[in-house]
Amino acid sequence: MVDMVDEGDVAPPSRRRHIARLAAFAGFLLALFYLVAVARVVDVGQVRHAVAATGAAAPVAYVVVSAVLGAVFVPGPILAAGSGLLFGPVLGVCVTLGATVGTAVVAGFVGRRAGRNSARALLGAERAEVIDALIERRGLWAVVGQRFVPGLSDALASYAFGAFGVPMWQLAVGALIGSLPRAFVYTVLGASIGKLSSPLAYSAIAVWCVTAIAGAFAARRGFRHWRGHTAGGAQDSVAEADREAGAG
User: Fold this and answer.
1) Domain VTT: where (predicted)?
2) What pLDDT is attached to residue 222?
3) Cα(74)–Cα(87) distance, rounded to whole angstroms?
4) In degrees, to the nearest 5, what angle opens at C-alpha 214 toward C-alphas 109 and 225?
5) Is the pLDDT reported for residue 46 higher than 90?
6) To the nearest whole percent, how much of the chain has pLDDT over 90?
7) Using an 8 Å Cβ cutoff, are 10 and 124 in contact?
8) Rounded CA Rg of the chain
9) Three-state SS letters, 76-122
10) 164 or 5: which leads in pLDDT
11) Domain boundaries, the chain
12) Contact, 135 vs 165, CB < 8 A?
């Protein structure tokens, strides 16, 4: 007799394959992070000069280039400051936001293609359904809230959101809403280089302080809320399985 395998279970060889795939993807991202964010193999100054040479097309060029560079872990504050330096505080903020949304979409798409199937297989059907329901109700605001958390890489978070199946529209809109304060801060500071005592620079610093404090509280509350919902969903699944076993 052939044993029936539950749809949510993953056979050991298949499980090892999914783990290896996710580990390889994580290793690739870690190596990329080291090369770009730590070893600084990308010269942002040269990129800025090359974009400036495109003339009237420079804002669009900087959006595209920064979106790709952000997805490979070039620090967002450096890119935003470069936008302010090139385009000033008003146009620079718009360029920074466009690049930020582009990075979220690129990283989310790669994360979805590289890790979503393996992540769902390892989670199992029941947990995947719980996460899908949470994403449907709160995925957009999870992306928005992540943008307020200080010290967390937006690109890395977007890869993770993509792997867990957050829709592209939620990533794009959430990045646009959640990144607005920081886009203003870093772009204005970049535009204010040499005159950091200006009122605009002081306002950027004030916004940064408020955003950091709000982000710390939002992260703590969001994590507790997410954990409570996940635990509740898992308990409901166990209870339903017990009822089915009793009925059988």
Assistant:
1) 74-191
2) 60
3) 19
4) 65
5) yes
6) 42
7) yes
8) 21
9) HHHHHHHHHHHHHHHHHHHHHHHHHHHHHHHHHHHHHHHHHHHHHHH
10) 164
11) 35-194
12) yes
